[in-house]
């Protein structure tokens, strides 16, 4: 069976950056299982997996536009330190959920001084080309429940 909409595929992957550093990878005990065609993984990887079969291996380079997007400097802001009332210590790397007119947005603290906090609402991998090394383990027809939910469930 080939990977197509309304199928569930299980893959092992290693994700690296342009310098070859490992950013993420599946563990041998827990492959990534996803429902194909519902946007549950980044578009560039999903497109590359379409038509593949169990046993296939592939290397995929995903440009930012097909991954986590290009960086948007408008999502980088400086806020007054008192915007973080109730938080004793604000440090770079901390993440908060901001409420925006478009809904919630996960922001990361990138710098802190005595009266200002610089936050970044871009995904940490925005603007990066992503390099995947993938092995397709299994492809199966989705269950009716998975089709209704648009997500892979337990096999």
UniProtKB/TrEMBL annotation:
<comment type="similarity">
    <text>Belongs to the FKBP-type PPIase family.</text>
</comment>
<protein>
    <recommendedName>
        <fullName>Peptidyl-prolyl cis-trans isomerase</fullName>
        <ecNumber>5.2.1.8</ecNumber>
    </recommendedName>
</protein>
<dbReference type="Pfam" id="PF00254">
    <property type="entry name" value="FKBP_C"/>
</dbReference>
<keyword id="KW-0963">Cytoplasm</keyword>
<dbReference type="GO" id="GO:0042026">
    <property type="term" value="P:protein refolding"/>
</dbReference>
<dbReference type="InterPro" id="IPR046357">
    <property type="entry name" value="PPIase_dom_sf"/>
</dbReference>
<comment type="function">
    <text>Also involved in hydrogenase metallocenter assembly, probably by participating in the nickel insertion step. This function in hydrogenase biosynthesis requires chaperone activity and the presence of the metal-binding domain, but not PPIase activity.</text>
</comment>
<feature type="domain" description="PPIase FKBP-type">
    <location>
        <begin position="6"/>
        <end position="83"/>
    </location>
</feature>
<dbReference type="InterPro" id="IPR001179">
    <property type="entry name" value="PPIase_FKBP_dom"/>
</dbReference>
<keyword id="KW-0143">Chaperone</keyword>
<keyword id="KW-0697">Rotamase</keyword>
<dbReference type="GO" id="GO:0005737">
    <property type="term" value="C:cytoplasm"/>
</dbReference>
<dbReference type="GO" id="GO:0003755">
    <property type="term" value="F:peptidyl-prolyl cis-trans isomerase activity"/>
</dbReference>
<keyword id="KW-0413">Isomerase</keyword>
């Amino acid at each position: 069976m080939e990977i197509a909409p309304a199928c569930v595929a299980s893959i092992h992957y290693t994700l690296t950056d342009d310098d070859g550093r490992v950013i993420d990878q599946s563990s041998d005990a827990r492959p990534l299982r996803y429902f194909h065609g519902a946007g549950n993984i980044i578009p560039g990887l999903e497109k590359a997996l379409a038509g593949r079969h169990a046993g296939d291996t592939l290397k995929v380079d995903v440009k930012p536009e097909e991954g986590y997007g290009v960086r948007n400097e408008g999502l980088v802001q400086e806020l007054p330190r008192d915007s973080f009332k109730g938080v004793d210590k604000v440090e770079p790397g901390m993440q908060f959920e901001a409420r925006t007119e478009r809904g919630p947005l996960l922001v990361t603290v990138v710098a802190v001084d005595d009266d200002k906090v610089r936050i970044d609402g871009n995904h940490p991998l925005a603007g990066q080309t992503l390099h995947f090394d993938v092995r397709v383990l299994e492809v199966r027809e989705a269950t009716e429940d998975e089709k209704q939910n648009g997500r892979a469930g337990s096999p």
